[in-house]
Amino acid sequence: MEKEKLTDVPLHQIQIKDAFWDKYIRLVKDVILPYQWNTLNDNVKDAAPSHCIKNFKIAAGEAEGDFEGAVFQDTDVAKWLEAVAFTLDSSGRDEKLEKLADETIDLIGKAQCEDGYLNTYFTIKEPDRRWTNLKEGHELYTAGHMIEAAVAYYNATGKRKFLDIVSRFADLICETFGPEEGKCHGYPGHPEVELALVKLYRATGQKRYLDLAKYFIDTRGVGENYFFQEEKKEKYQQIFPEFAGYVPEYSQSHLPVREQKTAEGHAVRAVYLYSAMADLAYEYQDETLLDACKTLWNNMTEKRMYITGGIGSSGLLERFTTDYDLPNDRNYSESCASIGLAMFGNRMAQITKDAKYADIVEKALYNTVLAGIAMDGKSFFYVNPLEVWPDNCIERTSMEHVKPVRQKWFGVACCPPNIARTLASLGQYIYGADENSLYINLYISSQTKLLIGETETEVIMESSFLKDGTVTVHLESEKASKGTLALRIPGYTKEFTVWRGVQRIETPLIKKGYLMITDLAASEEIKISCDMKARFVYANPKVRADEGKACIMRGPLVYCLEETDNGENLSSLYVDTKEALTENWEEQLLGGVMSVEAKGKRILEDHWTAEELYKEQPPELKNVTLKAVPYCYWGNRKTGEMAVWIRQLI
Amino acid sequence: MEKEKLTDVPLHQIQIKDAFWDKYIRLVKDVILPYQWNTLNDNVKDAAPSHCIKNFKIAAGEAEGDFEGAVFQDTDVAKWLEAVAFTLDSSGRDEKLEKLADETIDLIGKAQCEDGYLNTYFTIKEPDRRWTNLKEGHELYTAGHMIEAAVAYYNATGKRKFLDIVSRFADLICETFGPEEGKCHGYPGHPEVELALVKLYRATGQKRYLDLAKYFIDTRGVGENYFFQEEKKEKYQQIFPEFAGYVPEYSQSHLPVREQKTAEGHAVRAVYLYSAMADLAYEYQDETLLDACKTLWNNMTEKRMYITGGIGSSGLLERFTTDYDLPNDRNYSESCASIGLAMFGNRMAQITKDAKYADIVEKALYNTVLAGIAMDGKSFFYVNPLEVWPDNCIERTSMEHVKPVRQKWFGVACCPPNIARTLASLGQYIYGADENSLYINLYISSQTKLLIGETETEVIMESSFLKDGTVTVHLESEKASKGTLALRIPGYTKEFTVWRGVQRIETPLIKKGYLMITDLAASEEIKISCDMKARFVYANPKVRADEGKACIMRGPLVYCLEETDNGENLSSLYVDTKEALTENWEEQLLGGVMSVEAKGKRILEDHWTAEELYKEQPPELKNVTLKAVPYCYWGNRKTGEMAVWIRQLI
User: Fold this and answer.
1) Signal peptide location in the record (chains A, B) (predicted)?
2) From the CA of A23, how many Å to the nearest CA of chain B?
3) Residues 6+ apart with CB under 8 A from B532
């Protein structure tokens, strides 16, 4: 393992100004945060009521009433606060927003119990049942989101109040859980607090938080399953009816984490757990744990991941199924799961300095995560299919989880705020730094300032990467730094050219997928131009759902066909992969987009009447031109069919 | 409407001796009835306990304990008794079996309440809640099965006891339900009693039973939905958690039945309802009701039916979805639904004397219904997919309802006894008669004796239809009858030849799909030879799941590929529909079967490593020969993949 991993460049040191991303990032502050604030306060007329702030007011003694919402309802406030924190950090302080956040933090402080406990569900509704159902109670999960939000707010504002609140709670958790006799030897049913405790350790320097995270990881799945022991205890009470028939794989508690070889169970739980495993592997320089992370990463990304970076292919229970089982129409592929995949991948990239991880981070962010949000920021996908026929997305059928139209909000509203916090903290995925090097993982136009080899360096990245594959990085400092600039060469790039100033580098130095520019001068202009031609991509033939089909990609972007461009019945289309693809920049389409045209054929409906369902009439085809647009933009025009994988003419 | 519909030839007048069917029919008496008897008595070690007989003993005061099982548990006994009755009727009386049945009927009599009420769930468990939840309570459904069994037993044995028991119950139902003030104006949540009441009317001549059936049909879906009114009443209590979010379409109570244009909701409920509608349309010469039957039939068979005769394409709630939504791998297509389709189709065939209905009856029986039972009679499919990959049939995922292996029994055990009673009464689907004609719908070797135009006629049908398309029908009587023999010309037959004696009929008289042989002589030998070549069949291109795919059929039999014959990964196969199919009679295979070979190609896995999931590697193919076997036999050898629809080389 590398002794020194890459670390994030602080968000306030990064200014993003990118044609592709700005429109989304802008939405966070302008649309999503105000909308979510209204939702948390039950002020949105046609959205499911959240009751979130009300719960805190009740717990704080400022309002009367019963707890309402899910057992993890508090996390919506936490994720909103975290997104606010990232926004203040990355877009600059905003008095009005900060005031709202401060007031909310004050309220949270009042809702905290004397002993530090913080959870409105248990405080209001089940005060005697604290920590009695770790499988379903989500207390540690909720604590994790509170901690993450508090650390982000502290980093953004320097204000300690929220950090102190969660530290008191974390201290209580440290007193409650651990290997010592008399403490609870359980672990969370939904991992999340582990990675949050690592963040809290890094913010406060208190090693006990790190040790507790390690304890949760090390004890998971060891010996007789804790959750089954728990069920036999007196105060245990089932919370979710769908947990009947629970299997420990669901929460990755079927085996000690170091012995797990395949990505199992609920996908979000899995990637949150793996993220913490990666953190701890680094902090404790634990090679065995890092090996487990690599094994799980490989299984997940080489056998169980959609080409869009979606994971969790079962519509029921949002879970992994089996290798190569990647149905396109009935899958789950939760937006949050792809966010978690990016979190895990970013950690692995930072620890290993291997570009293969950032390839997947880019895939998840540019495709599934962005598909999760409408271009106006007002509606969201929870589920991200790769093929949709709106007519059969019917309630109370096995397709009921698939929505052909983004939804305003959700009863379980994890995805919208999760997307918001990801967009607001995008900088963490762009840059990574160690003592002597700056790594660039995503080619997003931005500028930053940081120390490279003790030399303060200003970095200006001008990227038209998605349009033409070209990126220019300017480095300016007072003196030569002897440092290194590492530029990720995406795995999908077939050829690329690099210039250092006017000089083309003929034999570039590549290390684990990064182009290394060493011995940086005081002023540098590095230009890289990658092949960005639209291409056909195929799935391993073991993926039964994609056999005989092709997908169009361009750079990191997966493309799809939409009914709007191609007429109805997308299943009747064939693509001719022997014919060249044509690219067209369309300034007026979807905010400016490179659309791609392919030659193909369409099965005709001639010779079939409405009365005929089956007969001896072989298909007849006509030539057509297919038009594809980026998957992340699907469903932003008229509601209709969509398909990523297109049957090939063989 | 025809003034005189076709009627069944009584089962005891039909002797079946058929190479294809005998092996199944034999199983009913030899395997299924004894096995089910043991199940009903909880004497099968590794099967889910039924508790059925125990419930009756408790209700009869002969045993202590609580009711166990589903609210409709009694129907398992009813269906067993009905299958026993049909077996006694068709295979000849059997003292031992009849004794078991008589004892069971005695027990049922003792379990009947003084007022005639008969239902162990409500008698034991909820005596105060009779008729308070028609939506979920299944009381009328259960009554229906009891009545059907009793009528069958009376027809088979002439014994009245069971008929009297159910008549007393039916009288109570007549007193309880109806349009009069003070009576309950509800109708069954699960249709079934309607068609049973028609049978009871036909057996007893009591018109009140027919009128009540008509009332149930006429009041269904009229005005404010009865089931929603019911929920507001004091004694109402929800029974099934999955009924939360109930929509009236589920039980076809969303509209008056005459206004329903599309087959909606739970598929078994639908076809049981439609069967009763057909019965009543005839009995009351109600053209509007018959038109509704035709509209629903057409929607169902022209837009919502699998090529195997399976119906109900949603894995959740066993229901219809939308036109052309016929996914092959995640569908439900319950065995019972195809039985109900055959019941409805047989009624429509009898009323309209149009062969198109019998085409579908044949399709359902020869494919889905037979697939529902193992060739050894010991295990059953509830769900009948058209494509299976055993690896992804995983519990607690959206594929959990799909089983790649037939199951011994089920918690809700409707399908096994339903298949048994269908096999035991197969004769009803072979022949139909009116005053002057004998109609032959299924070419199953058998003999019968009946009046054709007042002349007692002996009919001997020798069929090798499934092997070579040939059937010979011998008619022997004392004198010429002036009657008609109507032979169904299957819709899939492209050409056929008919001989009357040694004379080939050059211009056969065809009426609504039947070949009419008129003015029957005292002795006739009619031979018909239909084209029986294996053929490729295609789906309407609106069926997205089947586009670009072909299915192999031969006569009524749908064929499928199995992993046993074709290796793993059936999705990698293409069939060349321009190449001829080859037929091979394999005496040793699956009890003697015509297998079919096709030319095709297979996508190779060369050039792909286990680490590669997506890349720019177009598929490479090699030539292969595909081998198909009848779908009804799938899963009788090694467990493996199966596929009905095969991608075509375009």
Assistant:
1) none
2) 30
3) B465, B466, B467, B468, B469, B554, B555
Beta-bridge partners for A461: A446, A473
What residues of B are in contact with residue A238 (Cβ under 8 Å)? none
Distance from CA of B67 to the nearest CA of A (A): 23
Q: Are residues B612 and A394, on separate chains, in Cβ contact within 8 Å?
A: no
Q: Convert the pLDDT of each residue in B431-470 to its tens digit.
A: 999 999 999 999 999 999 999 988 999 999 999 999 999 9
- Would you call A603 and B298 a contact, using CB atoms and an 8 Å cutoff? no
A373-424 pLDDT, tens digit each: 999 998 999 999 999 999 999 999 999 999 999 988 666 677 888 999 999 9
Question: Model confidence over B119-138: pLDDT tens digits?
Answer: 999 999 999 999 999 999 99
Q: Calculate helix-pair angle for B335-352, B355-363, nearest 10 degrees.
A: 160
Q: Give the pLDDT confidence score for residue B2 in this predicted structure.
A: 81
Nearest CA in chain B to A540: B613
Contacts of A319 in chain B (CB under 8 A): 396-397
8 Å CB contact of A542 and B316: no
Strands B642-643 and B557-562, sheet pairing = antiparallel
Mean pLDDT computed over A524-533: 97
Decide if A314 contacts B397 (C-beta within 8 A).
yes
For B604, name the nearest residue in chain A, comparing CA atoms only.
A541
Catalytic residue chosen out of the listed positions B136, B139, B192, B318: B318
Option in A298, A392, A545 nearest B322 (CB): A392
Residue A61 identity (one-letter amino acid): G
B341 neighbourhood in chain A, CB within 8 Å: none
Q: Which two tokens stand for residue B171?
A: 């009288």
Per residue in B382-411, is it b (16+ CB within 10 Å) or e — as a string? bbbbbbbbbbbbbebbbbebbbbebbbbee
% of residues, chain A, pLDDT over 70: 99
Q: Residues of A with catalytic annotation?
A: 318, 414
Q: Which CATH class is domain A431-530?
A: mainly beta
Rounded to the nearest angstrom, the minimum Cα separation between A396 and chain B is: 7
- pLDDT for residue A359: 98
| Residue A62: Cβ within 10 Å count | 12
Interface touch A610/B392, C-beta < 8 Å: no
* Contact check, Cβ <8 Å, A321/B604: no
- The contacts of residue B161 (CB under 8 Å, 6+ apart) are B102, B105, B106, B109
Q: Domain boundaries in chain B?
A: 262-428, 434-530, 535-648
CA distance B116 to chain A (A): 38
* Domain B434-530 in this protein, CATH class: mainly beta
Quick check: B317 and A543 CB within 8 A?
Answer: no
Residue B443 CB: number of other CB atoms within 10 A? 27
| DSSP3 helix / strand / coil % (chain B, rounded to 5) | 40, 20, 40
Please give the backbone phi and psi of residue A470, each rounded to the nearest 5 degrees, phi first: -105, 140
Question: What does the radius of gyration of chain A's CA atoms come to, in whole angstroms?
Answer: 25
**pLDDT band (50, 70, 90) for residue B415:** confident
Collect all residues of chain A within an 8 Å Cβ-Cβ radius of residue B612: 302, 540
First-to-last CA distance in chain B? 46
pLDDT for residue B309: 98
Q: Provide the number of CB pairs (under 8 Å) joining chain A to chain B.
A: 202
Backbone torsion region of residue B590, taken as left when φ is above 0, otherwise alpha when ψ lies between -120 and 50, otherwise beta: left
Phi then psi for B325, rounded to 5 degrees?
-90, 90
* Amino acid at position B67, single letter: F
Distance, in angstroms, between B596 CA and closest chain A CA? 17
CB contact under 8 A, B398 and A603: no
In this prediction, residue B411 carries a pLDDT of 63
b vs e for A180-218, b when ≥16 Cβ sit within 10 Å of the residue's Cβ?
eeeeeebbbbbbbbbbbbbbbbbbbebebbbbbbbbbbb
